[in-house]
Amino acid sequence: MRAIVHDPRARHGLRLDDVPDPVPTRGQALVRVAATSLNFGEVTYVATQRAAGEVPGWDAAGVVVAPAGDGSGPPAGTPVVTFGWSGGWAEQRAVDTDQVAPLPPGVDPAAAATLPVAGVTALRALRGLGPLLGRRILVTGASGGVGRFAVQLAALGGAHVVAAVGSPGRGDGLAALGAAEVVVGLGGVTEPVAAAIDNVGGPLLADVVGLLEEGGTVLSVGMASGLPTTLDLEQARIHHAGAHVVAFNVGDRFGPDLDTLVRLLAAGRIDPQVGWHGPWGEVDSAVDALLGRRVPGKAVLEVGR
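RE: above sequence
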């Protein structure tokens, strides 16, 4: 089969090649992949996370061609969205059945492919903040994949969402997704927030701590800045008593949460925010756009095109 593999000599460390077909275990379904989405982390760190010739890819949507041998998961012919820590950028993927959710009729695989990492991360992070109704929730890096899902899901939960972006153009469309306030940087945040989801890291994370209400929480979800964070905990004790800074990890077993997101997508309650869409032969262009911060939301590749 054809797949995008890691090639240390290639421009972005990626190229199309022929690889052996995957061999599922008894607890895995075999899926013919139609679309996959790129995540900032997997393209940024492909050289350190992948061996030469390995097939990367976390998110993929397609159709089950062979069900799991142990009887778990959906039958052959079922359209699905899937998650795994590798193997998604290929014509076929073997995937654990607890990482799969069926797609309702009419759901576009390209839209569904945006959901696994970005959508589940946003959903689980917001769940970790507790009740959202009426609370001021800050989302930094709100223009990215996780950020745009977090804005939508927080608004659906009744939060007053403050969406922070790095430049004016990156804020386009966020108000329509449910953001009550869209700010460039954090200078426009004029009132404390009950909680925050930080996708940027670096010095910005320390600044977010300074915006928390007493007992507030910030989840460090991502580090798009690539910079370390220095926290003055003494100042936090004095001015933000009880503040929590949590290193968020998305965890595993995506299936149930993917099912929740798929239902919201099918009902039109969330938008996949596909900001770049093209054939997988143009993976370098997609990576250029993603790393260059030119993708509002998600970049999606059509597999086999």
